[in-house]
Design goal:
It is a single chain. The chain is an all-alpha fold. It contains 1 helix and no strands. The longest helix has about 170 residues. The protein is elongated and about 190 Å long.
């Protein structure tokens, strides 16, 4: 019987090992499943925290935008008052413009006369410049001619002096 008992114990041991392996496999799957679920829970908690932070940031942004809207509203009212003032000023300026248009016609006539006078003076000035240029050229030419005539005179005087000396030498050298 001892063999039977040993066999039975061996079978029980084998069955118990199989059951244990099966239980360990199930337990390992449960642990893996639990880890996956834990990771999902952690990811969800992180996502919730991120959303809370975004929500807080958005609330701050809304508060800032509301404050900015109030400021813009106040500025809008100020701008409307400024617009009314500018419209009144525009009316005043339009009245002045009408008055100035009346005097503008007179001024245009005067400007036209002055332009004609300026054109006449410019023409006269151009003629005088041309005459001045011609006179300068003539003056320069006359100075050059005068200089050449003086040089020619000096050459002639020198030549006459040379001839006079020659003549004196000839006259004085004939005592024969």
């Amino acid at each position: 019987m001892s063999n039977d008992s040993n066999d039975r114990l061996t079978r029980l041991n084998t069955e118990l090992g199989e059951v244990l392996e099966e239980r360990l496999g199930v337990l390992a799957e449960a642990v893996e499943s639990s880890e996956r679920i834990t990771r999902r829970i952690i990811a969800a908690e992180l996502e919730i925290e991120r959303h809370r932070e975004q929500h807080s940031a958005l609330q701050q942004e809304v508060a800032r935008l509301e404050s900015q809207a109030d400021t813009e509203r106040d500025q809008g009212q100020s701008l409307q008052a400024e617009k009314a003032r500018l419209i009144a000023e525009l009316d005043s300026l339009q009245n002045k413009a009408t008055e100035l248009e009346g005097s503008l016609s007179q001024n245009r006539s005067e400007v036209s006369q002055l332009r004609e006078r300026a054109t006449t003076l410019e023409t006269e000035a151009e003629a005088l410049r041309n005459e001045n240029t011609a006179l300068r050229t003539k003056h320069k030419t006359l100075e050059e001619n005068l200089t050449r005539m003086r040089q020619l005179k000096d050459e002639l005087m020198s030549s006459i002096s040379g001839l006079t000396q020659q003549m004196s030498g000839l006259a004085g050298g004939r005592p024969e």
